[in-house]
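Weekly structure sync, notes
Attendees: PL (lead), two postdocs, one rotation student
Agenda item 3: pending single-chain targets
PL asked that the sequence for the first pending target be pasted directly into the notes so everyone works from the same version. It is reproduced below exactly as submitted, 265 residues in total.
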Amino acid sequence: MTTVNDIFVYLDEQAPFSLQMSFDNAGFLVGHRNAPVKKVLISLDITEEVAREAVETGAELIVSHHPVIFHPARSVTDADPVGRTLLTLAEGHVAAICAHTNLDAVAGGVNDALARQLGLVKIEQLHPDGVDASGRPYGIGRVGLTEGVPLYAPAFAAKVKELLGANGVRYVDAGRPVRRVAVGGGACADMLTDALKLGCDTFVTSDVKYNGFLDARDWGINLIDAGHYPTENVVCPVLEKWLRAGFPGVEIVHTAKHSEVFQYL
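Predicted structure, written out during the meeting:
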């Protein structure tokens, strides 16, 4: 019998929770540690809809990227979305394990998945942070090379949109062909200078503020904001693959209820 704790220990081996950043709240966040698990639901976020989906489909555990509890909860009631989500999980006997910045940083995690999805090769770390207890290097962001005839920013931005299934992208065209690309899944715009130091002509990330686009234009680097959800949802198939390999007797499914939250006109 597989338990919640078995899955937590396994995920801790793949993406050690000790590597999470100081502001983060990754880990085993909801449920009974020794509860049996026959079905796991994978989702980038644990929303009210995803929590209800888990209950309705008989999943005993949700594994997500973003923590269902991020800021300290002063109450857990049906008066706000977080409270309703937590009540749905608790009342439905659904546990939650959330692998966040630890999954961003480890080899094979969010940023490697993003780089591979964009077709980059010769992938290396953008910002090395150290090695884990097993001697494996970790750090946020990746750098890789494009293959074939280099594209310019408008065409490459369109390709990024297609490959990530994004509803839209924002970009700055620095007039440079796209050859050496840095990627940062989620909100990594503050790593633009890291990309410049490593000789990148292009940076793909999300949640870029106005001044970030101005900086990219002034510094002469193509900058593509492909959205938070598209640049991180690429890790959900990775989690599915890991869990299927580690627990062949457990049913692993991807959410059918959660997708990009906004549209572009």
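Discussion points:
- The chain has a mean pLDDT of 97.
- The CA atoms of residues 65 and 93 lie 20 Å apart.
Action: rotation student to compare against the earlier draft before next sync.
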